[in-house]
Design brief:
3 domains; Molybdenum Cofactor Biosythetic Enzyme, Chain A; homodimer; alpha/beta; five-stranded mixed sheet; Alpha-Beta Plaits; Maf protein
């Protein structure tokens, strides 16, 4: 390539400008580009207004080789991205019969009559290539533009994050990778480390020496809150050599980062914990106070989790801790609900009453209220009860707000469980 | 009618373009403007690069009366928003001694020595008015610009969301309110309807006639899966007239859409249900099978929910339905876990055992496996037990996949609860 590939994000939608939604698609696009060693050159958000969309498209194609629009592909009257791309490209609209047939099949598969208005979703710029979307009704499309940069491409994706990510990962990323591969080293070997408990900057500091000593190796950091994912990427001509080096550097990175690394690979914490249990023919019960169902929700999000997860108790009120988990009221009075004793009793009660091999408990202060000097917001006790007995752990999580405290607590709970199960 | 005040959001920072962070400040700005009946005319994100920031500033002031920048006010070398605003405005920099003194006091208060680099934070465009920031070290500032619109203002806030919101609410909002009071820009009145059970396109079709009969009224659709939010937006010179018309059209829209509308306003389903319970001094317990903790998680995401939510049981395995909720094994054998009888028994068991005024249950088939001809994936039974007895509801949710079925089921569960409580 004569110049670095420039990519621009153009988000379309009133809901992004009137306070209803924050634009997460631009972040996901930037993240996908980072995996390729690219970066967005800029981003723009425009309302559902033809003149604004067309003007932004014309400016964007002069600024970037690849412009990715999100939103405005739906069936309703305020979805006009397709028309605007056609106008900006100076072409008409074509009716894509195959895309329309796929929309029809989607509705048929769900036994829902298709509203006539969905026909609009099959009207695409006449010069555009259709990107079929298995995740929703709106197809995406790529439209070539003549631009100040010579030629640019406008990729139009639906605004629904799941559908956006689907087309981003399935269609755009492979295309960009191919474009970058021209003349690039033949193999790229990636190793991922998963860290929980250190900030991104702290992890980065610990890998500073490794990065300096190996300037040709790319180290990527991704904050998948509350986890930090570190990717060591080795490129080279020979696969075996690159693989060996990636493995060696991953080991080095693991020891440089230290104890916050709990695992490797791209498998999420909940799936890894479920797999560890399933491999041992074990079952699980959860007893949640401060996480309020989040741990159970994360576990049961995984298809097939019912083979392992017996169930759980969300014991918010003390009376429920006693009635459903058998935590003695005297213990609650003596130690308080947020205590090691209660965390242990909750886990043991869940394990016994729900008849599971393992049980996991959380009790803490998620805030915003309820904290005190000796039991501040963010203090969480965890219990892990198993065939070999019960362990308790304490964490003082930083007060990043209720939602984040609950996310951190659920991640630590799953990590404590995973480590206990893997030791058996 | 003078033009409505145009406001533009300019976010500065590499971290917004490389996948690390999603820009929440633009959303918060749009939200604050919505309270004033205003809307962002656009938003732009640029990297920490002088030429990009200066060019974006110059374009923005020609587009908007008020441009709000976020980020780039920190002490490090890549924080250059102040210099760029000065360059774009064609002025120099001044050292603000008072701002510098406040920065020093901040460090003193935390007993931390102040790095020399923080001095940079007190260098502001010479024509700018300082906006002291009680939430952090970086002061904000407001800089006047000559622009294609005559005169524009650039408000520069720190990127840290808490500091951004602080200056937004304490400084910008009052200024805008004052400007709106004297000038006579058009007022904008919004009404939101919340619909559950129809696709976005089906809702749009039902409002087609209203849209055609009132071409000057904006109707916005937003899919907040599984809900469809419809906004009717009336613009006019007179607030009372616009309000009356918005109310009238919202009523019309409600009857055109029909039974899928369950409420109005921007309050999420879980918050509304909790409020309805709290107003009646009632408490809640949940018993979840197919939603696996998602209903409890959604409810306990809300701060203060512990005043209402006693807790819940995630009864995934039949043995847990029996042990923790007292569902008779004979009933499970006879009717199966996914049945009206079991949904009722789960709700009644949770209500009795967890000692709550109300209890809510879900039992269904989230898939991908476990479906059958008479009990297909997507079939869900709901139970709502309250002081006046127990009701059961059945839904055959479209098979959009496990995760979405669980999201739909949790929304229907909360809707059934809300409607039952509101009837009391």
């Amino acid at each position: 390539m004569t110049h670095a590939l420039r990519v621009f994000s153009l988000a379309v939608g009133d809901e992004l400008l009137d306070g209803r939604v924050a634009d997460a698609n631009t972040r996901d696009l930037g993240d996908a580009l980072a995996q390729l060693g690219l970066e967005l050159c800029g981003a723009r958000t425009v309302p559902d207004a033809r003149s604004a969309i067309v003007a932004a498209l014309r400016a964007a194609v002069d600024e970037a080789d690849v412009v990715v629009t999100s939103g405005g592909l739906g069936p309703t009257s305020d979805d006009i991205t397709g028309e605007c791309v056609a106008e900006a490209a100076g072409v008409g609209l074509r009716f894509d019969a195959e895309a329309f047939a796929r929309i029809g099949m989607m509705f048929a598969a769900r036994a829902i009559p298709m509203p006539e208005s969905n026909r609009r979703q099959a009207l695409l710029p006449s010069s555009a290539q259709t990107l079929h979307n298995d995740q929703g009704t709106a197809p995406g499309f790529v439209t070539p533009f003549a631009s100040a940069r010579g030629a640019s491409e406008v990729w139009s994706f639906p605004g629904v994050p799941r559908e956006y990510r689907h087309l981003l990962e399935e269609r755009l990323v492979p295309r960009l990778r191919a474009r970058l591969a021209q003349g690039a080293p033949s193999v790229m070997v990636r190793r991922t480390l998963r860290s929980l408990g250190l900030s991104e900057s702290a992890v980065g500091e610990r890998l500073g020496a490794l990065e300096r000593e190996h300037p040709d190796v790319r180290v990527q950091y991704r904050a998948a809150f509350p986890e930090i994912l570190v990717r060591v990427i080795v490129t080279g001509a020979d696969r075996d050599a690159a693989t060996a080096r990636a493995d060696e550097l991953a080991l080095r990175a693991r020891s440089d980062i230290g104890g916050s690394v709990y695992g490797a690979g791209d498998e999420p914490l909940e799936e890894r914990a479920l797999r560890a249990l399933e491999q041992r023919g074990a079952t699980l019960a959860v007893a949640e106070s401060c996480t309020g169902g989040l741990v159970a929700k994360r576990l049961t999000d995984v298809p097939g989790s019912s083979a392992v997860v017996q169930g759980g108790v969300v014991a918010y009120a003390n009376q429920v801790k006693t009635a459903a988990l058998g935590v003695p009221t005297t213990m609650l009075d003596e130690h308080g609900a947020v205590s090691e004793a209660v965390a242990r009793a909750m886990a043991e009660g869940a394990r016994a009453r729900l008849g599971a091999t393992w049980a996991l408990s959380t009790t803490g202060i998620a805030g915003p209220s309820g904290g005190s000097a000796d039991k501040p917001v963010g203090l969480v006790w965890f219990g892990v009860a198993g065939p070999g007995g019960t362990a308790a752990h304490q964490k003082r999580l930083p007060d990043f707000g209720r939602e984040r405290i609950r996310e951190m607590a659920s991640a630590w709970a799953l990590r404590f469980l995973l480590e206990a199960v893997e030791r058996t």
